[in-house]
């Protein structure tokens, strides 16, 4: 997470909060637009165009309602040859979800394929289970309409062939990374989560078998608990293999699509445009106050006051009978 922002498509980068503040990286990759999505998303650079979305990294957080707005912001910037940075706090879940939704919308890829494209560029990409469910629901119920909407609003095909070609290259790269074990899909021989490559170590150790619990009268009388169909991708215990966890949280959602949730058709959006014309901002989510604060340009920080301003009271070293010492200051009316 600390290796800087990563390119996932031409003109599209994913990073974390630290990357969004790093002016060196922003200049290096010529970032012109920043999509900030986290609990306290706020405009940090007055010369950049911002879309600030206040959203938590919770499986219950509805991100689907923002996909169309994010797609417009990203696609319009790329068509104008701008470079877009999508970031959250860690650059793993919320920002990746938005990037995956965009790639799905401008290419024929499924959400799983789009996630692989992002992971090929940024190995820590890891939407939480709730966001993966939303991506699958988006693919099932809304993707066709969103693709049609984008084509009508942005009829230019300048990016279509290039994006599809780049995605194919990234998918091939992803398969190569899998074969070289530089990335993992959770098929870890040690049955552990391995964001840092536990499954790539030279050790041939196998997980210790768990000791069988001693049967008791309570166990005999207890009703066996049955696990409901899980949304996690696991190997059936009936085959003799223990379930394997996903890496880094590369959470694998394999459940069926849920029914589409109803959300407000209109989003409360606050827009701010600088008089200089160098930057602009849109803020979505939260309260009206938080949106205005997020979209406002950062104020120039004031200089730190002097530690001992001239003419201020000074206190003598602490001694019995010590009192305040007021320095003598000459007042000149001509200076007022």
Automatic annotation (TrEMBL):
SUPFAM superfamilies: (Phosphotyrosine protein) phosphatases II (SSF52799). The keyword Protease does not apply. PANTHER family: DUAL SPECIFICITY PROTEIN PHOSPHATASE, DUAL SPECIFICITY PROTEIN PHOSPHATASE DDB_G0269404-RELATED. It catalyses: O-phospho-L-threonyl-[protein] + H2O = L-threonyl-[protein] + phosphate; O-phospho-L-seryl-[protein] + H2O = L-seryl-[protein] + phosphate; O-phospho-L-tyrosyl-[protein] + H2O = L-tyrosyl-[protein] + phosphate. It is a lipid-anchor. Residues 212-239, 295-306 have a biased composition (Low complexity). It is found in: Cell membrane. Its EC number is 3.1.3.16, 3.1.3.48. This is Dual specificity protein phosphatase 15. Residues 260-278 have a biased composition (Polar residues). GO terms for molecular function: protein serine/threonine phosphatase activity; protein tyrosine phosphatase activity. Residues 4-144 form the Tyrosine-protein phosphatase domain. Keywords: Cell membrane, Hydrolase, Lipoprotein, Membrane, Myristate, Protein phosphatase. Residues 202-211 have a biased composition (Basic residues). SMART domains: DSPc. Residues 200-323 are annotated as: Disordered. It comes from Bombyx mandarina. GO terms for biological process: signal transduction. Its main location: membrane. Residues 71-122 form the Tyrosine specific protein phosphatases domain. Belongs to the protein-tyrosine phosphatase family. Non-receptor class dual specificity subfamily. GO terms for cellular component: cytosol; plasma membrane. It is an enzyme of class 3 (hydrolase).
